Amino acid sequence: MQNLCSVAGLIRRDDGAFCAVQRGSQGRFKGCWEFPGGKIKDGETAIECLVRELYDELGILVEISDEGPAVWHQFHDAERGETLMHLQSFYCVCSKFREPQLREHTNIKWGRLNEFLDIPLTPSDEKLLLSLINNRKERGTVTAATARAR
After folding, report:
1. Could you tell me the CATH number of the domain that includes residue 136?
2. What global pTM score does this model have?
């Protein structure tokens, strides 16, 4: 089994809205939404990767404010075979806020975390979203099915 380490940026505006981006029509999970980020390259730290990815994908510079939750996701990939992905998230804010530019994605959405339950997320980002929501709940656990039913 192959291991893959990725990062996701939990970009938050002053009004509390988070950023999600929609993948294009090419590649795996085309048209799905995700928290922006990407794969960590050899010799790169998770934070270096996130700063690079957010600049490359959205043209923004960020400051990391805190580490967010991490999730594991197992999947089959045509190139890698069985793969176990570790997705580490980080809360961040734009150094000098400007609207992100869509360089690799087709759309951007700002919203509260529970608003992202109604859009198709990649499987790993759906796990991350549920972890974020559950970390904010004082009682009860939210699953994708129960969250959509609310």
Report:
1. 3.90.79.10
2. 0.84
